[in-house]
Amino acid sequence: MVSSVTPLKMGGLRLLCHPDMMNPPGEVGEFGLNHIPAKNAACESGPEGSNPSLSATDTERPALGVAMYEERPMRYWIETLGCPKNHVDSEKLAGLLVSQGYGPADSASDADLVVANTCAFIEAAREESIETVLELADAKRDGARLVVTGCMAERYGDELAEALPEVDLVARFNESLTVASTPVALRARPTPAFDLLNLPRPATSAPWAYVKIAEGCDRRCGFCAIPSFRGDQRSRTTDEILSEARALTAGGVREIVLIAQDLASWGHDRRRGALGEAVEVLDEGGSQPLIELTRALSNEVERVRLLYLYPSGLTTGLIDAILDTGVPYFDLSLQHSSRKMLRAMRRWGDADRFLERIAAIRAADPEATFRSSFILGYPGETEEDQEDLLEFLEAAQLDWAGFFTFSDEEGTYAHTLGSPVPHELALERLREASALQDDITAARRDSLVGTRQQVLIDSPGVGRSVRECPEIDGIVMVDPDLTVGSLVEVEIVASHGTDVEGVVR
Q1: Of the N and C termini of the chain, which has fewer Cβ atoms inside 10 Å?
Q2: pTM here?
Q3: What is the spatial distance between Cα 395 and Cα 398, in angstroms, rounded to a whole number?
Q4: Is the dihedral of CA 152, 158, 164, 165 positive or negative?
Q5: Where exactly are the structural domains of the chain?
Q6: Which CATH class is domain 197-446?
Q7: Is residue 16 predicted with pLDDT exceeding 60?
Q8: pLDDT in tens, 212-255
Q9: Are strands 169-170 and 144-150 parallel, antiparallel or unpaired?
């Protein structure tokens, strides 16, 4: 089953994730298999959770390169909220702290440094971030330091520093978590202390890993405030990405999941003209760097999965590259199907174009899997637009989908629009769309019974075929004695909503 929040515990890090938060903005509904309760709207994947803290007496020892407290290494705890990109950031922050002499704590109450890596995507995520910070303030031991970083620190740093006396430090992106500060201080931004995007990646115990290939976004969708605090797109180089991937595979990773705000535009790094207008499909036959990166990575690891593809960037060449990886999984950021609503969202496409693209992919590979996410209740949405979406869902037969009600974000184009949709009506539309998609998802899972699937064993009793993205989609329930990290062929013998059951024959 898709859970409202997936807690993961990895020495010193706790990840509370819900994967769809990377795609659609909006308050999450509380009904059905295909969406997340608002309380835990921060991070799907589902594709992450929590992280660490410092002590008031914490000191850095640059000469020794070791942080010590009472003659023992300092311990950190990182609480992560939000999307898979935050998950990656937290892992890299943990690696940086370890390189400075810190060790992972068993809990927030056991740490000298407690860090909240926050999400500011939508109102529900911000509320959860504040609640988490206050919970960590109560949980930390006397003398430990509490640091807030991540998207809320970047977007609302001044307000947080003023409103949360419980916090010792508000650190924006790329700023030190261990700088001494009493009382609470907001770090100015003279020179970044490090490049978070390219920090070394610590080892992981899981057989899969997210790899963030770019930061920020050049698009200006009507509902999204992310570019205002994450900035324009900044792509990593091919060598940097391949180096990280090789280190991960050397540590046992067998599936790499590529993430970015706008994955299909990786490597372009230019501000698109006429900001806010829909960007048409990239020229067929033109250069699309992601194609070559995908092919290069498929030579390094058994599975390569791509998340968050803007539909206009899904060119024929990229489709072929994805199919060639052997992971025919297409996570398309659609957000709606009504052309009128998509233009109001300052996005490309409509139902006909989306269905044409989906049909072309299924013609090339009938086993292709599709996920998307949708916003209900965007300003100006009518009953006709809702009917358009329901008809699209019926025609598209997506395997997975997430649904969110619109969140009015200050500083966005949507914030200036009139014609607000009452929240209860938006929730009603969400329930209607989700109920339809629940039936479609269950039927598509039922159709797998009797087939044979190769599954990657993520943890005891939990496997995934190429149809399931880690932490986001359903799972394949397997014998708990199967070796974690192994690839095993199973026969699907039963379906249980979003999950299926597989046995070795």
Answers
A1: C
A2: 0.74
A3: 9
A4: positive
A5: 6-192, 197-446, 452-503
A6: alpha beta
A7: no
A8: 999 889 889 999 988 888 888 889 999 999 999 999 999 999 99
A9: parallel
